[in-house]
Amino acid sequence: MTTLSLNTLSHIRDCAAALITAVNSTPTNELLHQNLGSSFLSHISLVMRKFYIYQRIDDRAIAIADPS
Question: Which of 25, 57, 53 is CA-nearest to residue 45?
């Protein structure tokens, strides 16, 4: 199991959030890799799997709180 530093995790998450805001889309791992420059695709994939899981949980919580 790979253990990533908090700095690496934050860097990948911040880049993903910035790309989502900039292009209003779901960035691919390759797009993240191009923007990060130095991260391994395996690290990006690991972080982004969890990132999207938490994003879906947040979306469901918002839908439950505001059913309109």
Answer: 53
